[in-house]
Amino acid sequence: MILVADRCSMSPVTLNEMKTTIVGALSNYVVIEDEQGVDLSVSADPKLGTLYSVSVPVRRVKPQYTQEAGFFGGDLDDGISMAWEDEDDSYPMGT
To answer: For the segment 2-23, what is each residue's pLDDT rounded down to a tens digit?
Structure first.
């Protein structure tokens, strides 16, 4: 965490608070496998500047937000589609 703080000019305490806030926001929608497994990294991109990446081990989506509950599928008002094509109808996996 100290190396990350050095690269982005944030104190380790502030980075830990950011990580806690992100985990709290995600916890509204998913069950997190292990909060100790959450990884926050910082990198620099010449075009975009500082990039923050967070890796969160997710156990599952909370039942009220699943496809069966009618949360997924269709298009949102701003044109973003939440539907995906998958023969076995499983949830998409990301990194």
So the answer is: 455 455 677 888 888 999 999 9
Q: What letter does residue 31 receive in the DSSP assignment?
A: E
User: What pTM did the predictor assign?
Assistant: 0.60
Pairwise CA distance, residues 53 & 62, whole Å:
23
Average pLDDT over residues 47-66: 88
Cβ neighbours of 19 (radius 10 Å): 19
Task: Give the helix/strand (H/E) hosting 21.
Answer: helix 12-27
| SS percent in the chain: helix, strand, coil, step 5 | 35, 25, 40
Measured in residues, the chain has a length of 95
Residue among 21, 17, 55, 22 at smallest CA distance from 38: 55
Report the C-alpha gap between 15 and 3 in whole angstroms.
11
| Structural contact between residues 53 and 41, judged by C-beta atoms closer than 8 angstroms | yes
pLDDT over 90 (residue 69): no
